[in-house]
Amino acid sequence: MAFVDELREALQPAKFRLLSSRLFQALVADEKAPLDLWKLYLWESYHYVKHNGINQALAVLRTDVTEKRLMIRYLKHALEEIDHDEMCLRDLEKLGVPRERVIASRPLPETLAFSSLLYDFVQRENPIGRLGYSFWAEGFNEESGFIVDRLRHHFGLPDDHMQFVVAHAVLDRKHGAECAETIERFATTPADREAILYFGVATCHQFYYVLEAIYDRYLRERAG
Fold this sequence. Notes:
The protein is mainly α.
């Protein structure tokens, strides 16, 4: 079995749990989802994606200087991630949410914990493990088109009001394939593969709590 197949298999329980979250289920259901829930998802997404390019680039600092091709992969991916928070802000502005309000806000504790986990692992553990996060986060190839169609059904928004998910439906297919190829090419030691397996499952597990916390915030604000 190829290692990426082993990784995919190891991720299945955590991925299934993530897809069973109340937020995800609301966004893919036949019953129309509330637009306020989508706004909150974009709001929290801004707070973690603004870090993704940075913590990806940080992996270079703890990579052996002889691994130049791997460092190039890290930096290339970081550059392609670095403005995704702007997509969230633009989409929210088109939905009537001022960007200044989002930028000035604090993330939910679960979102902060998720971002902190990414930084912590890259800086204190084996940085190649971050590829485990990229593998599942960029690897929703089967679901991405379905998710975009569901959002069109729910909200009736044009694609330029949903840039964050529409763009990712295309980008993630490319990034997912690149990540799988990077793992197979550069994760050659047992320590590297263990780090990728551990961090892939850990981040997928942790992101479930981000989605659940967003849904809880939606319920609180609706009740208030």
